[in-house]
Amino acid sequence: MTQNEFRLLPDVTPETEHFWRGGAHGELRILRCSACRTFIHPPAPVCPECLGRDLAPEAVSGRGTVATFTVNHQRWNPTVPVPYVIALVEIDEQPSVRIMTNIVGCEPDDVRIGMRVRVTFAEREDVFLPLFEPDA
Ligand SMILES: [Zn+2]
What we know:
- The chain is mainly β.
- Helix content is 4%, strand content 43%.
- The protein has 1 helix and 8 strands, in the order αββββββββ.
- It has one helix at 17-21, and strands spanning 28-33, 39-40, 55-60, 63-72, 84-91, 94-103, 116-124, 127-134.
- Strand 7 and strand 8 (127-134) form a beta hairpin.
- The chain is globular, with a radius of gyration of 15 Å.
- Residues 33, 35-36, 38, 47, 49-50, 52 line the site of zinc ion.
């Protein structure tokens, strides 16, 4: 078991497939409005900025900053090792886009608000979970 095994797999829908499977191409893909260029996450059918409906996934750099986090010490699932970090990561392209994720590749005690991170993907069945690790 790796430190990522605790994640429950998401329901992949046509609206979220780009996000959960972009990792197959090594890309973090976020829905973007073609009219005003706003990134939209979680995916929605209409742009919240301009109400545009011409939205398409676009690859972002995968780099971002830890906006907030918590360290989970509770063993909710007996097969899941603790502790682990649950975080909101702001993407560089648009800090209002915050991705709920886990920070991996370092000790939970080393995670800080404002820490620079980059995406890494954990392949589970047909899903590529976007996780983040320290950006050295
Ligand atoms: Zn828009």
